[in-house]
Design a protein that fits this description.
Layout lengths: L1 H41 L9 H39 L11 H31 L10 H30 L3 H5 L4 H39 L9 H20 L9 H23 L2 H35 L23 H24 L15 H24 L17 E3 L5 E3 L1
Helix pairs in contact: 1-2, 2-3, 2-10, 2-11, 3-4, 3-11, 6-9, 6-10, 6-11, 7-8, 10-11
Length: 436
């Protein structure tokens, strides 16, 4: 009897592992397909020639797609965990959601951490060096020579980073045991290095998010059609048409380039055409789009910004008054043990909306900074080097989002521990599995 129970337990564990692997593969496949279409939308079409460079660009494209999919997965994991927690609380014994358990959630987080390390320290440096490599002098040109040069550059980069971290640890902490622990690459060095990257990502998020919150109103104002209050669009269209016709006549009537600066005149004509396109879009917009969508979106942005600032202010006051509110001292509830909000599912949905809003605001603020303004991708005109830079930036921001969300008090779900027995599926008396 005990042997049968042991075999049954092993079979259930095997089926659980197969189910979790299948779910992880399907979710990642969906993210990979979406990421591929996004990158190909912005990738420069002139890079698609059929030669050796085309193969290199294609390999770099696949690596960038993989990295972007990992970044999207890291962003979606926190909302997915919050939703899963509320579903498990609402339907604790439902047979059809037994696959949604703590083991699956912790497995997804472990895979996200592993793939983030892989992309950040291996795939993206390899894609960049492989794209810029030409092969060592004296060797036969080809893919093998470029791969060899890329591997050598990666080895030198790894030695450089390892030496810098070891020297920094020796200067900061003079304990010999802490320096010797850096030799343990898998258990200590890579998690330590990834924690440093997450710290830089948090600092970058704290810098970009306020800028993004202020820029969101201007960005939405450019994307939406503003209400036409005390404006005559027909008169403006007539004036712009006259200006366009006058500029075209001046360009056609130039007898020589010395009569006028042709470049400035063409730029002025291009600006007039862009303004005319905006006026045509505003004229074609319906009354509902002009008078209802724009005010509703602006009010929604104002409410979300106010709630975000209020939650952050309340969390800062709690950190100042209550020492147990510190993230290092809290032991938040696990998956399916308690609700994350006093308002239940509504509060959890509000937290998810705020997390997405902060992530979008941080991305907008990142591209609004003067130093990163050149990273803005352009449709059908973005080089692979810029795509690699964008993928690395998004990966760093996404890896720091859960840390910043927990620090600011937007969620209290504890995910750093190993799953307990109560988080995994157990067999019930009738032979079916039951989520406790």
């Amino acid at each position: 009897m005990e042997a049968q129970d042991e075999v049954s337990a092993r079979e259930q564990h095997f089926h659980s592992q197969v189910r979790e692997s299948t779910i992880c593969f399907l979710l990642f496949a969906i993210l990979y397909i979406v990421s591929y279409f996004i990158i190909t939308r912005y990738k420069r079409k002139s890079d698609e020639q059929e030669d050796e460079d085309a193969i290199v660009n294609r390999i770099s494209l696949f690596l960038c797609t993989f990295t972007l999919a990992v970044s999207a997965g890291a962003v979606l994991l926190l909302p997915f965990s919050i939703i899963s927690n509320e579903i498990l609380l609402s339907f604790p014994h439902n047979y059809y959601i037994q696959w949604l358990n703590g083991s699956l959630i912790h497995g997804l987080w472990n895979l996200a951490s592993l793939f983030s390390n892989l992309c950040l320290f291996v795939l993206m440096p390899f894609a960049f060096f492989f794209l810029e490599s030409e092969g060592f002098a004296g060797l036969k040109k080809g893919l093998r020579a470029r791969i060899l040069e890329t591997l050598v550059m990666l080895l030198l980069l790894a030695l450089l980073v390892l030496g810098m971290v070891w020297v920094a640890s020796a200067l900061v902490d003079k304990d010999a045991a802490s320096r010797e622990s850096l030799y343990d690459l898998w258990e200590f060095y890579l998690p330590y290095l990834y924690s440093c990257v997450s710290l830089m990502g948090c600092l970058l998020l704290l810098l970009c998010t306020p800028v993004g919150l202020s820029r969101m109103f201007a960005v939405m104002g450019q994307l939406l059609v503003k209400p036409a209050i005390l404006e005559d669009l027909d008169e403006q269209m007539y004036i712009v048409a006259l200006e366009e016709e006058a500029l075209q006549r001046r360009l056609a009537g130039l007898s020589s380039p010395a009569d006028y600066n042709v470049m400035e005149l063409e730029q002025e004509l291009e600006n007039v055409k862009i303004f005319k396109t905006k006026l045509e879009r505003r004229k074609k917009a319906s009354a509902w789009e002009r008078n209802l969508v724009y005010p509703a979106v602006m009010v929604l942005l104002l409410i979300e910004t106010s709630i975000s600032v209020l939650l952050v202010a309340c969390n800062i006051l709690c950190l100042l008054v209550d020492e147990t509110a510190m993230p290092k001292g809290t032991r938040g509830p696990g998956i399916g043990n308690a609700s994350l909000s006093a308002f239940g599912f509504v509060g959890a949905a509000l937290e998810i909306i705020l997390i997405f809003y902060l992530m979008v605001s941080s991305v907008v603020g990142f591209y609004s900074l003067r130093f990163f303004g050149d990273f803005i991708p352009k449709k059908d005109d973005t080089t692979m080097t810029k795509i690699i830079g964008n993928c690395v930036s998004l990966l760093v921001l996404s890896s720091a989002l859960p840390v910043m969300s927990r620090t600011l008090g937007l969620h209290k779900l504890h995910l750093s521990r190993a799953p307990r027995e109560s988080d995994t599926a157990k067999p019930s008396a009738n032979g079916h599995q039951k989520v406790l």
